[in-house]
Write a structure and sequence with these properties.
About 20% of the residues lie in helices and about 45% in strands. By secondary structure, the protein is of the alpha+beta class.
């Protein structure tokens, strides 16, 4: 896979978090290498992942939207969305919390309206 990359990846061993399902699901991973275009991650076992996730690397202090390019057992390659900018970790956490709050409020509103 390395020979198809236009930009070399830096080898690292960082803890990462994948967030999906509108911020309601998270999964820990190990980031094995990365560059400005994507990351290679390792997961515990063969868990199912959606095609699109948010990748957070706390040690770098950022989060990015990404899509899965390949999957091989416990490893996966993710490419960052081109229109995705690096989001500071603090801002990403605030945004995810507000998304969860919004989801809960919508659910509560639907419950209230269904009673009429």
């Amino acid at each position: 896979m390395d020979n198809r990359r236009s930009e070399a990846r830096q080898r690292v061993y960082y803890g990462g978090v994948l967030t999906f399902n509108a911020g309601s699901s998270t999964l820990a991973c190990i980031v094995r290498n990365f560059n400005n275009r994507g990351v290679k991650i390792e997961l515990d076992g063969t868990v199912l992942l959606p095609d699109r996730v948010d990748v957070t690397i706390e040690r770098r202090g950022w989060s990015r939207h990404a899509r899965m390019i390949w999957r091989d057992g416990a490893g996966a390659g993710l490419a960052f969305d081109q229109d995705s900018e690096v989001i500071s970790l603090e801002w990403a956490r605030t945004l995810r919390e507000r998304e969860r709050t919004n989801k809960r409020l919508k659910s509560r509103l639907e419950q209230m309206l269904s009673g009429y």
